[in-house]
Amino acid sequence: MSGIESQAVTDAWARLDRAAEAAAQTPILSLFEAEPDRLVRLTLDAAGLHLDLTKQPLSAEGLDAGLALVRAAGVEARRTALFAGLEVNRSEHRAVLHPALRAPDGDFHALGEPVSGEVRSTLGRMHRLAEDVRSGDVRGATDLPFGTVVHIGIGGSDLGPRLVWEALRPLQGPIGLRFAANVDGSEITAALHGLDPATTLVVCVSKTFTTQETLANATVARDWLRAELGETGARKHFVAVSAEPERAESFGIDRDRVFSFWDWVGGRFSVWSAVGLSCAIALGWRPFEAFLAGAAAMDAHFLEAPLEHNAPVLLALAQVMNRDGLGRSARAVVPYARRLTLLPAFLQQLEMESNGKRVRPDGHTVLRATAPVVFGDAGTNGQHAFFQMLHQGSDVVPLEFIVVARQDEGPADLHRMLLSNVVAQAEALLVGRSEDDVRAELEGKGMSAAEIDTLAPQRVFPGDRPSTTIVLDRLTPESLGALIALYEHKVLVEGVLWDINSFDQWGVELGKSLANRVLAELEGGPAQAHDPSTLALIERLK
Ligand code: F6P
Q: Is the per-residue pLDDT at 27 higher than 90?
């Protein structure tokens, strides 16, 4: 008994640790023979997605131990609390209610206050603006229709819409969409390059409307619009999305061009809100609605499916077994879909900002390792970059493969090649290649015994490297919505198991405030106290 968690939780972790010790001694492959129902137990369908966890180090006992932990830690109660709009984000005294955003017919309450009416009304305004911009009923200051939306925002106000747009954008559509997040001036310059202010709509997204990067980029865009269209004209080209609408108005955006969202929507969970407005305009309203519906289907699955067939729960348990049971501190996410190239970056924020914590809500230090490093790139590209390490490196890095079974873009034979690669990679990681096999091949090539002795070990693949495969039948607004919601709920489950608040982000504050101090110095202000290394760097940059 640790003194800060219940005996039931301590016991459940001890059981999981025992299962992990066994897993460390048991090749995953051997489990298929030992447990004939493995394929059934570790595959499932949820909201149109197919999950295959059969290549994870989860034995029947490991899974049962994990499910016992889920029960003991109170995942079900926290899930209920989240959907009931209770104060799940304790450090900020907020509800966490992103499911309300994709259930326009729902009746959700945040901390007892009804919210679904406001959600409906905001969706209604988004719908109107999206249709009016697309039809040309809403035009710019010179009466020209809008041809491009420039979305300005960062972090949760950028990564979701960027992912959605790249995943679903038409090759050619009536409205283009560009993004500017970084305060590196080259980004807004590139975003505006070649555009005509008269046909450009700027959508500035910031939950707080205080974020340095976003305000700096919005100022550049506002000046760019004003230079061509004048102050009054520029107003017709600016829309804001914020949980602080007054601040957006103070920035100079007309009230009827400000779309609200609410403090119960975390930035990294906000793509379903008006934060997704740029996508609704550029993709069209129907796809955006379908995206919300896909997420709502995953919400229903998460709420209703039994724990042992619950996709977010099983995905979280695979993570916890690898991270806590087997000490694996990274996870690679590799979508075999060019359109999902941004998924790893999106998940970096979702998972690492949510669960990269070492202190519990009660102020005690956590007892177990929390979020791993998440990284990745699209396959097959990643195969020619970091996969060497995944196959033969000294660390075991579990993977998540995202596969789109049917692809309408491009020749069918290319898609079959893509599919063959992902299947082969997962197989190679699991099965590996023995030294005997390598030696036989090298002998067949007539290599000398001395050469074989040095080369064969280098060409061995140890195998037993775990992966999960998530299959989308097609990449559609619905399947993308379900996929993102799957990860959102996985984050919640992990947060409960690790006993952390997944919904605050105090760790981003220190750097922000120090940057303001350093900025004052770089702008010629008085020198401040710094460590010697930082002082030297400031001097050089001055
Ligand atoms: O990086 C910290 C953070 O607060 C994220 O959580 C958030 O998504 C991002 O900055 C942008 O914040 P805002 O939407 O308030 O501009």
A: yes
Using an 8 Å Cβ cutoff, are 229 and 198 in contact?
Answer: yes
- Give CA torsion, residues 309, 311, 313, 315, to 10 deg: 120
Predicted pLDDT of residue 104: 82
HSE of 512, CA atoms in CB hemisphere, 13 A: 9
Q: Tell me the mean pLDDT in the region 439-451.
A: 97
Q: What DSSP designation does 366 have?
A: P
Supply the residues annotated as catalytic: 353, 384, 512
Residue whose C-alpha is closest to residue 280's, from 132, 480, 159: 132
Structure confidence by residue, pLDDT tens digits, 293-346? 999 999 999 999 999 999 999 999 999 999 999 999 999 999 999 999 999 999
Q: Which of 508, 510, 512 to mutate to test the pocket of ligand 1 (most atoms within 8 A of CB)?
A: 508
Residue 3's pLDDT band, with cuts at 50, 70 and 90, is low
Question: What residue spans of 56-158 are helical by DSSP H?
Answer: 60-73, 75-83, 98-101, 116-135
Q: What percent of the chain has pLDDT over 70?
A: 99
Which residue reads 């979701």 in tokens? Answer: 160
- Alpha carbon of 155 to ligand 1 centroid (Å): 5
Which residue ranges have their beta carbon within 6 Å of ligand 1?
154-157, 206-208, 211, 214, 267-268, 353, 505, 508
What residues pair up with 44 in beta bridges, in sequence order? 51
Question: Which of 505, 509, 513 for mutating ligand 1's site (highest number of atoms within 8 Å of CB)?
Answer: 505
Q: Which residues contact 375 (CB under 8 A, 6 or more apart)?
A: 330, 331, 332, 333, 344, 348, 386
Q: Atom of ligand 1 at shortest distance to CA of 242?
A: 14
Chain centroid to CA 111: 26
Identity (one letter) of the amino acid at 414?
A: L
- In whole angstroms, what is the distance from residue 474 CA to residue 482 CA? 12
Atom number in ligand 1 closest to CA 205? 14
Which residues on adjacent β-strands are paired with residue 240? Answer: 204, 258
User: Tokens 């034979």 appear where?
Assistant: 413
Q: Which residues, 6+ apart, have CB-to-CB distance to 163 below 8 Å?
A: 271, 340, 342, 343, 345, 346, 484
The CA 272 to ligand 1 mean position distance, Å, reads 16
Cis peptide before 122 (omega within 30 of 0): no
Supply the DSSP symbol for 206.
-
Q: Is the dihedral of CA 254, 259, 262, 266 positive or negative?
A: negative
Look up residue 416 and give its two tokens: 């079959």
Distance between CA 256 and CA 254 in Å, rounded? Answer: 6
- Taking the model in full, what pTM does it have? 0.97
User: Among candidates 183, 177, 172, which has minimal Cα distance to 151?
Assistant: 177
C-alpha 157 to ligand 1 mean position (Å): 7
